[in-house]
Amino acid sequence: MTHAAPIRRPLPVLGSLCRTGRLTWVEIRKLVSHKLFPAALLITLGVTTGLALATKAFTAGMGPRGFSNYSLWVTSAGYGLQVGTLLLVALGAMAMSTEATGRTLNTVLARPIRRIEFAVAKVVSLVFAVVAVVLAAALAAYVVGGTVEPTRPPLVWQADGTAVPDWHFPSYGDIVDPDPRYGEGVLLTKGAVMGDILFGFLLLVVPVLAGVSVGFLVGTLIDSSGLAIGLSVGVFMTLEATKFIPVVEDQLGQFAYNYPITRISALMLEASGGTVPQWGDALAGVGISAIYVAVSLLVSLVVFCRRDITL
Hints:
Layout lengths: L11 H22 L2 H23 L10 H33 L2 H6 L5 H31 L9 E3 L5 E3 L9 E2 L9 E3 L1 H32 L3 H17 L4 H7 L6 H14 L7 H27 L5
Antiparallel strand pairs: 1-2, 3-4
């Protein structure tokens, strides 16, 4: 007597991961087709490029006092990213609240998918949006900064004995001592400067994501998308305003989810001037932002999975 081979069923965890992956791809496509995400990218690119070009033109004749290519890159990217972050916070608030407002949540949950899978797909799509906006600000400022002639460009000796500046796009290179008494001493190599600046951009993803996660939490708690956007943007703008009030900023600033943005940008600016940045306190601030991310997303997932939704 022969026995039939047992039917192998896919592991539940593997099936859940596959469904989450498909949902994530759907959410990313919805995000790209949504008006606010392309607007956030274009506005970030426009603001960053515009600030960089204006700063370059304004400081073109200032010599050593003007912005170097590295400084222009870091400064304009930082300001452009702050504008992009504001739009990302609104996007985070809309991620779940628009599903409830438009009654599309009922249709989605009527399908054979779990709520946790749907919520995780939303979160991953928001992470994608944050990374895209940070990259947009960094690349736009990098291109404009690369057109700036170095303060001390390398020289090429001609046949007649004259030396002419020799530089090309992108103009980033080693940072040399601007004091002619010390010759061409290298303060910081190109690789070291690029490494510090790129590390700073990597760190900036966390506080930006923290703001988005707070917006996502508000949008999960409130079904009205307009109210969720208003509250999220209001909280973000309030925390931004504390940077201009020294007493409040000293007490609250280091505990705000967006506090590390200013500190990281300052350290990146130090690297652009030939100083090795000390990342200690910035990493502590990033840790606080990471706590905001973890708590906000965890509460959002728990609330969404447990709330009563009438289909």
